[in-house]
Amino acid sequence: MLQFSETSGQKVLFNADLVRGLDSQGLRGQLTAQEALRKLLSGTGLVPRKTGSGSVTLEKANTVEPQSATTLAPVNVTGKAVYDSTDPYNTDYNRPNATTATKTDTPIMETPFSVQVIPKQVMQDQQAVRLERAIENVSGTYSSRASGGFGGQSATFVRGFETFEFYRDGGKFNGGFVVNGPREMANVERVEVLKGPASILFGRMEPGGMVNIVTKRPLDTPYYSLQQQFGSFDFYRTTADATGPVTDDKSLLYRVNLAYENSGSFREFLEHDRVFFAPTFHWTISDQTQANFHMEYQHSKDPHDMGLFAIGNRPVNLPRERNLGEKGQWDESETFNVGFDWSHAFNDNWTLRHRFDAIFLPKANTLPTVNVNGPVNPSNCTPAGCRVNRGIFRDERDDHNYYTTLDMLGKFSTWGIKHEVLIGGDYQRLDHSTDFFFTPYLQIDAYNPQHTGLDLNAGRFGGSINNPFNFGHNAFTEEWGGFYTQDQIELPYHVHLLAGFRYDTARFTESQTFSSSGDQTNTYSNTEQEAVNPRFGILYQPIPEVSVYGNYVENFGSTNGINANGIALPATTAQQFEAGIKTELFDKRLSTTLAWFDITKQNIAVTDPDPDNALRGFQTAVGEVRNQGIELDVAGEVLPGWNVIGSYSYIDSQITKDTGQDVNGNITLGNQGHRLFNVPRNIASLWNTYEFLGGDLRGLKFGGGVLVRDQREGDNSNTFQLPGYATINLLASYTLNIGKTKFTAQLNIDNLLNKNYYDSASNSTGNGIYPGAPRTVLGSIRLEF
Q1: What is the mean pLDDT of each run of 10 residues along the chain (785 residues)?
Q2: Parallel, antiparallel, or unpaired: how do β-strands 209-215 and 188-195 relate?
Q3: Which listed residue, 7, 548, 595, 632, has the most CB atoms within 10 A of its CB?
Q4: Which residue, among 586, 580, 587, has the nearest Cα to 547 in the 3D structure?
């Protein structure tokens, strides 16, 4: 109805309870407004009644007097009837607009960058309870369990570059510090992925791109949902969603999302337990001023798993469920996120926006756990015997993160040329403190393990929890602020320009104490850096269905390590060239993006070539990596009821600068010329569903897809490889409307053929290899009303 009103200009009024749960076949072709409205209402039991003000009210058929029938003016109707993008019943697989690329609500077809959106319906169909599963639908974007290691954290790779950071409604989360365990998805509306450097608008980050989680906002129409999921490996997850108005005038709205998860794993000794609570409020203060307040609380107990190791150039041939640690190992933490955002429109053209987020991870504990450090003698590791070194590790962290941004948006014209200007600034502060210890621990036979339980006093060389072999304290404060400006210009002949720049200033202070076998090292560093980086983009839209674009962007990246003089290394930098073509086909129901990119990243920290300095963890900033390739993304509706989302990427990754030292102490090129770890050359995904929209089978849906990964290097030395693989996933669901309640039963099967594969490796020579999950069945029952 919303799309019909917008297209025809005919205002349609209706009670939300009257239309809840009703479906429409949609519209195509040239119709009068009366014909279009009649087709939309066909089979619903509703009819239009024209009011004295010229609007149309929807009512039940038996409440309308015969003389109230109306004749509406002719109108051209194109496209299909769609819901608002935030409507909980929206079933679309594509979205025409996104905010992540420009910080404004801009049509993707007018954005000279590659930005992809994963809507809620895709995540529901796939039962993507983890962010890692959702982003697999985007080209060149995937997760790595191995890079996180502790607390179930995962890194994200975008265009071949690794990052632990993600964004929540445009606010930065330092995932490696203030988030312990996987990101909860219960309150996620959609996920937007911006490809390429994004530091111009969002601050310091990796150049591959950014993942922005857009959360569910309060609605002015009551909506409630309850879902129970259950599946393989004792997986149980309960979620609830409730939203609606608090006041009669709907000036104050609320939404609450709850989740509880308790699950095991295909890996031995691993268990998860998580509680999540996320209330949010929307306050319409006036016609010009609005505010939102949110809070998230998560309590997590996540397992500690260090994976397997390599023998020769392949992962060791062990059962994928084998865990060489001990039982009862986990990380326990509580994460708090509180924040608000508000906006004030001075008039139709100028708006002021402000956002603030505070994230706390107080006293996150890694209980004494066992790390796996690889075989004692790799050349003599056989099923007859393979002794593996292990160590006891423990840490206690206290992290706080603050992020705020202030923007002014303006629209104006000069000599007939339209401008949309963004002027703003942001500030972030991260305070991190950790105490840790590590001591060598009793060995174990990888092929014939004897798990005896964790003995905290059984370390070698006299090491134990009370007498650790290695211990230390690390604390740092990272602050950065920036000022940015951007102008989106609409020129004649459907040409769109985007130009902007950013000024950054960053400060990093770190102190560290490290003791190894009584040899204590104390370091302190304090550095300040500044940078100015530009961003340019151009897009030409010769016809509404096609856009051609190109861009050049520079990036100011993250802080590096410390050199042998105790001085922080310079921040990483990067440059990107990109060109592509976008299409919107079948009345904008199906969108595609084909892109070519070339990104070079400099000042990468590599190990100091001096062995003594390397032993103490010192580094030098001489590394450089170049990733270039092509990407294809497709999402939307091919035919009525047939939805598809798919991707393909080819990434040519090369370490172009590095340094090292050979056995004779000579400086070498290190890993120069090697391929970056965990970056497949070819990545592809395809997922599609078909739902019966009418007849006796209405509400029945089938779907399936395939996920393909090429061979990957396990480390930057390219000493071992993870084989390529392909997995097949299936879906079956049935939806039934019972009065005002929508009931959905669903079953998903992932890795249908039970493929034995490896998810990722941790860039540690021969260590930290994570097997992928075997065949997994996940069921769901969901009620919406």
Answers
A1: 58 63 57 62 71 62 46 44 72 92 93 96 96 95 68 80 90 74 91 93 91 96 97 97 96 98 92 94 97 95 84 92 84 89 96 96 74 85 90 83 96 94 95 84 90 68 58 87 96 96 91 73 79 96 97 88 75 95 94 98 83 69 93 97 98 91 68 93 98 94 97 92 97 95 97 95 80 96 97
A2: antiparallel
A3: 595
A4: 580
Which pLDDT score, from 0 to 100, does residue 302 have? Answer: 80
pLDDT of residue 446: 93
State the fold for domain 1-81: Phage tail protein beta-alpha-beta fold (3.55.50)
Residues 6 or more apart whose CB falls under 8 angstroms from that of 459 comprise 391, 392, 439, 440, 441, 442, 467, 468, 469
Placement of tokens 């590791």 in the chain: 381
- Token pair for residue 747? 């079953």
- Per-domain residue ranges of the chain: 1-81, 213-377+399-784
Predicted local distance difference test score (pLDDT) of residue 74: 46
Q: pTM for this structure?
A: 0.86
Closest CA to 599 of 551, 534, 533: 551
Q: Is 752 exposed, middle or buried (0-12, 13-18, 19+ CB in 10 A)?
A: middle
d(CA 628, CA 621): 22
Give residue 431's pLDDT. Answer: 92
Nearest-5° angle of CA 304, CA 207, CA 430?
A: 55
Return all residues near 80 (Cβ < 8 A) that are at least 6 apart.
3, 26, 27, 28, 587, 589, 637
Q: Residue 676 gets which letter from DSSP? A: P
CB atoms within 10 A of CB 481: 16
Torsion of CA 419, 420, 425, 426, to 10 degrees: -150
Task: Report the distance separating Cα 616 and Cα 733, nearest Å.
Answer: 56
Distance, CA of 540 to CA of 286 (rounded, Å):
39
Residue 328: how many other CB atoms lie within 10 Å: 14
CATH H superfamily, domain 213-377+399-784: TonB-dependent receptor, beta-barrel domain (2.40.170.20)
For residue 759, what are the CA distances in angstroms to 11, 117, 762, 774?
A: 52, 24, 10, 11
pLDDT the model gives residue 82: 43
Decide: 170 and 100 in contact? Cβ < 8 Å.
yes
Residues 678 and 147: beta-carbon distance below 8 Å: yes
Q: In the prediction, which pLDDT does 36 show?
A: 67
- Taking alpha carbons only, the member of 34, 46, 32 closest to residue 71 is 34
Across the strands, what pairs with 73? none
The token pair at 693 is 């929209």
* Token pair in block for residue 713: 């290097």
DSSP, res 137 = T
